[in-house]
Design a protein that fits this description.
The protein has 15 helices and no strands. By secondary structure, it is mainly alpha-helical. The two termini are about 15 Å apart.
């Protein structure tokens, strides 16, 4: 049950991401929005790694694997996703994000040989219906015309990247702690992204002394909650749960995002959105309780 509570907490933090990006986008570019919080989170992780009693030495093969996870997982999931959203509509991005839990489940079956048992299919279906209800207003505004083709494609590539990291990355958790895996993944991302942000967005560095309170707030929240605490909690939970189980909880981002938007941005919740949020939460609780009852039978 503790692992499920960790997943609930990290999905609540992820629900803050899009609001935080809106807070900083006026002064920095998309690459810097990813690079700066992730770099600061890496610095924050280092002393914690040094304090761990049982550290796994990093060998050349695993270093290359972390570079692959960063290049094929984190980079698409954060950088390419940001680029795609800028070239498309927010409503399109919201609906395309619904493919990530399904992609994660498929990758988990492919890479980890996990099983999609009937109760998991039912929970996935119920959660998907709930998210569609939550997004009822956005559905009416969807536009998949050719003008948004490139942006929509980049968003979809981003969801595949996140799904790849969440599934294939579980292999590394067999040898490394959650904090070690996150630290090495972020170091690999630093190696990949730093040359790009220096080359493509040098103006973002010059803007730092002129950051407003709003920009500092957004950067601080992205650093501590999105790139640091939420990811540590997620990887700790992933050590105990199947990637498919963790994927189902990704639908909670939409459910939690609704009250966050209502509180922070003053948006109104429709009855359909409330119903959808309850359905997502109920489906997640159902699979949680079922898996907990299933453990004694497997023992």
């Amino acid at each position: 049950m503790r692992s499920w509570l960790l997943l609930f907490a990290c999905n609540l933090m992820w629900a803050l991401q899009f609001t935080c990006i809106k807070l900083v986008e006026g002064q920095v570019g998309g690459l810097f929005t990813v690079w700066a919080p992730m770099t600061l989170a890496t610095v924050m992780l280092y002393p914690l790694i040094r304090l761990e009693k049982h550290r796994t030495p990093l060998n050349k093969k695993d270093a290359l694997t972390f570079l692959m996870l960063a290049g094929l997982g984190i980079f698409p999931g954060q950088v390419i996703m940001t680029w795609g959203t800028r070239l498309s509509l927010a409503s399109n991005a919201a609906m395309l994000m619904l493919t990530m839990p399904v992609s994660t489940a498929l990758f988990a079956v492919l890479f980890l040989r996990e099983r999609m048992i009937p109760v998991r299919w039912v929970s996935f279906a119920a959660a998907l219906v709930g998210v569609v209800l939550c997004s009822g207003g956005d559905l009416r505004n969807l536009n998949f015309s050719s003008g948004y083709l490139v942006g929509n494609f980049l968003i979809f590539v981003g969801t595949l990247g996140s799904a790849f990291y969440n599934s294939y990355g579980k292999r590394m958790l067999e040898r490394y702690s959650a904090m070690e895996m996150l630290f090495y993944s972020y170091v690999a991302m630093f190696i990949i992204v730093t040359p790009l942000v220096v080359w493509l967005e040098p103006g973002s560095f010059l803007a730092v002394p002129h950051f407003t309170r709003q920009t500092w707030t957004g950067m601080g929240l992205l650093t501590f909650f999105h790139n640091y605490l939420s990811m540590v909690l997620f990887l700790k939970a992933l050590q105990k749960l199947d990637a498919i189980q963790a994927a189902l909880c990704n639908y909670l981002v939409t459910a939690f995002g609704l009250p966050v938007a209502a509180i922070w941005l003053g948006e109104r919740l429709s009855p359909a959105a409330i119903t959808g949020g309850v359905l997502v939460l109920a489906s997640t609780l159902a699979i949680t309780i079922w898996e907990e009852f299933r453990k004694p039978e497997q023992a």
